[in-house]
Amino acid sequence: DTEVTQTPKHLVMGMTNKKSLKCEQHMGHRAMYWYKQKAKKPPELMFVYSYEKLSINESVPSRFSPECPNSSLLNLHLHALQPEDSALYLCASSQAGTSGTDEQYFGPGTRLTVT
Amino acid sequence: ILNVEQSPQSLHVQEGDSTNFTCSFPSSNFYALHWYRWETAKSPEALFVMTLNGDEKKKGRISATLNTKEGYSYLYIKGSQPEDSATYLCAFSNTGNQFYFGTGTSLTVIP
After folding, report:
1. Which residue in B34, B49, B96 is closest to A98 by CB distance?
2. What are the tens digits of pLDDT across the range B65-92?
3. Burial of B73 (0-12, 13-18, 19+ CB in 10 A)
4. At CB < 8 A and 24+ separation, what contacts does A63-68 make?
5. Distance of residue A104 Cα from the nearest chain B Cα, in angstroms
6. Phi and psi at residue B84, to the nearest 5°
């Protein structure tokens, strides 16, 4: 199974809502990533988990809260988002915790709209 | 934030044509360079991971070269087919787990 799944595919939320994005992989990968991509821009790294520990936080606002409950699951909790947070949120995983030489496997993304 | 540039932004070619595009990245503190293909409504798919200066990698009709000293990588597609239509992204890593993506080259192959 070389698939990374993400749910939901689409999410519309108000600025006062709390929601979560979910990402799952069963490839035994030990690094998992959250990226944000706005239209016509490159994907931007948000967070990296390595062996279930947060290893990189690219100065992401606290209204985004990542969680890695086990090695197969990665969540992104959303609270008090702004309309400018509307974007495609991509999850990825790779085999090792600290090697940039491993391929990343991406999920199809969650299209988030904040109203 | 590191600057990773891809050119051209978009490209239309006829079926059967060969084509190539460029990824430029900082030449200092190089760790790895990744190429991905991203078809509409699908997940980005890894094509190559390149680490050594002078690396050349090939997968079917697609190949890539790497020059870390001058900070560029080329992606070549030989005999383009309509199914090659996609956005091709490169991602530069200078530390291992941090990746900086280019904006991509959108390729359309016209039958």
Report:
1. B96
2. 999 999 999 999 999 999 999 999 999 9
3. buried
4. A66/A34, A68/A32
5. 7
6. -80, -10
